[in-house]
Amino acid sequence: MHITVIGGGLVGVTTAWYLIEDGHHVTLIDRASELAAEASHANGAMLHASHTEPWNTPRAIGQLLRWIGREDSPLLLRPGELPRMARWGLGFLRYSQPHHHARNTGVNARLAVYSLAQMRALEAMLDLDYTQRHDGILKIFRSSEELIRARADTALMAEAGVRHQELEPAAIAAHEPALADIQQTLSGGFYYPDDASGDARLFCQRLGAIAAERGLVLRLGETVERLVIRDGRVAAVTTSAGDLEADAFVLATGAEAPRLARQAGVRLPIRPVKGYSATIPVAGLEGAPRLPIIDDGRKVVITRLGDQLRIAGTAEFAGYDTRVRANRVAAVLNQGLANFPALASQVAPAGVDQWACLRPMSMDGPPILGDSGVPGLHLNTGAGHLGWTFAAGAGRVVADMIGNRAPEIDVTGLTLDRYR
Ligand SMILES: Cc1cc2nc3c(=O)[nH]c(=O)nc-3n(C[C@H](O)[C@H](O)[C@H](O)COP(=O)(O)OP(=O)(O)OC[C@H]3O[C@@H](n4cnc5c(N)ncnc54)[C@H](O)[C@@H]3O)c2cc1C
Residue 237, SS3? Predict the structure, then answer.
């Protein structure tokens, strides 16, 4: 079959890879001049099956409402966005009920565990280097209430195969000596030995290059403007360079996916949720961590990528505004560096690489994979804060579905028909 993948982020590139492996003729179109130009460019770099709880807990919704308009808060709802997100917001609220939240944590964890195994297999097969580390991830807590809540989520993830070890503050400092200075302020944490980390942009660009050597046609700098529906199926797309026919299309345009899907009459319950990252050079500096760390209370993740340290976080409901706001990046950076006082005193503001982009967030948490309900159009989007973690697994699952093969995992809760 000739299959066109629309979108060249993590999700589009991995899907294209598995489709090429299956022997299809594959074209990938992206409006940017390089792969991984948007959400997959400078994310938190964590492959974390340990972080698969959806963001819509009743507590998070309370915080979101309390912090409306507060520029320094980790969750920020811009009032102008409220009317546009009313329908999605109601769903977000509804799915925060404990039984939905627990189920969706399990659905995400199932896909994440599978995905990390697929990543390992890809790495081994292709000898891929994307500054990856398989050292596990630490999650730290200051409040004992949060630690207790996290035990419940961790137990749900464990059912899906996420291994973990609970740690006292002293054991946290033993795992990561860079945290020794703040050890007294911690209530405890977890270590997840099977989690990993790595540079998503490098991964995308390297996998894309290998796929291109094996026949993937890359059309970069080309925007898909319209889906062409003929006889009830998506038969072609109109792009900034003309029309392109194919037997099937995969929509992998991240936060933009609802806009194109709507043209085929498909309503995707996905909203953009903006995040920021700060990347700093740490070669020669003292006190930088080696292990990836999730600081749950401060809502930041901290990841070492070779000689750099990436700090990422915040969830900002601000529509499709992708502007990098220096005050928001500074807030993320300061929250992250507060864990490493020795390092913080050596970081020069001029060396900070600032970035922002939009997570494609479904209203219930899991991504939306496979059949769109319209012949010729397949979906791979909505991965929210987990798109890097899910990329390989979701790509494999969607390629299996297109090839009429049963995916290797149960896809209940991962397809569009869960909303019907
Ligand atoms: C601050 C931050 C930190 C994060 N940290 C992590 C993390 O540590 N671990 C994790 O698992 N996930 C993380 N994520 C989430 C993850 O980065 C995203 O879920 C993932 O990148 C989404 O990938 P994607 O391919 O769906 O979207 P994108 O990477 O945005 O790709 C979509 C592509 O579609 C293209 N496109 C859109 N419209 C069109 C069109 N009309 N025509 C042609 N091309 C089009 C865009 O140019 C873009 O390249 C983080 C996200 C953010 C914002």
Answer: strand
pLDDT in tens, 263-283: 999 999 999 999 999 999 999
Per the structure, the complete domain to which residue 211 belongs is given by 2-419
Domains of the chain: total: 1
Q: How far is the CA of 52 from the centre of ligand 1 (A)?
A: 17
The CATH number of the domain holding residue 217 is 3.50.50.60
Q: What is the mean pLDDT of the chain?
A: 95
pLDDT at 68 over 80: no
Burial status of residue 375 (CB atoms within 10 A of its CB: 0-12, 13-18, 19 or more):
middle
Q: In what order do the strands lie in the sheet with 242-245?
A: 224-230, 233-239, 242-245
- Whether the CB-CB separation of 34 and 9 falls below 8 Å is answered with no
Q: What is the value of pTM for the model shown? A: 0.97
Ligand 1 first shell, C-beta below 6 A: 6-12, 29-32, 37-40, 43-46, 48, 223-224, 252-254, 256, 260, 275-277, 301, 312, 357, 359-360, 381, 383-389
